[in-house]
Design goal:
- It is built from 5 helices and no strands.
- Helix 2 packs antiparallel against helix 3.
- Helices cover 75% and strands 0% of the residues.
- With 116 residues, it is mostly helical.
- 28% of the residues are buried.
- It has one domain: Up-down Bundle (Four Helix Bundle (Hemerythrin (Met), subunit A)).
């Protein structure tokens, strides 16, 4: 587990049967893919594109789950659900903000932990 406790690699380790090379590979993919998905989610949010918000929050959900970023487990699902339903959209703002903050911190932690 990371020193900041925002992510937990136990599920990832189990998924790849503790193969250190695969772990580094998957962490690298996370670090390559998540910034773009987060950027796209934010852009969709700013433009009010609910379909894209739903799509990118759904894509981020699998990364959040694999890396056990439990502090935004509910938030990422909330973004997807609000975008899907199109109601209570004002509720999305704080969820997006927390998702951004937490994922930036997680990515910084992974870069440090894996020297990437």
């Amino acid at each position: 587990m990371s020193e900041n406790n925002l992510y937990n690699l136990s599920g990832l380790m189990e998924f790849v049967e503790d193969d250190k090379e695969q772990i580094v590979f998957l962490v690298s993919i996370f670090l390559e893919d998540v910034p773009g998905m987060l950027k796209d989610l934010n852009q969709a949010h700013r433009s009010g594109d609910l379909e894209k918000m739903k799509f990118f929050s759904h894509k981020l959900k699998s990364s959040v789950d694999l890396f056990k970023v439990d502090t935004i487990h509910t938030e990422i699902r909330g973004i997807e659900q609000y975008a899907k339903s199109g109601i209570n959209l004002v509720q999305i703002d704080p969820l997006i903000e927390k998702t951004n903050t937490v994922l930036e911190t997680v990515m910084d932690g992974l870069r440090k932990e894996f020297s990437l």
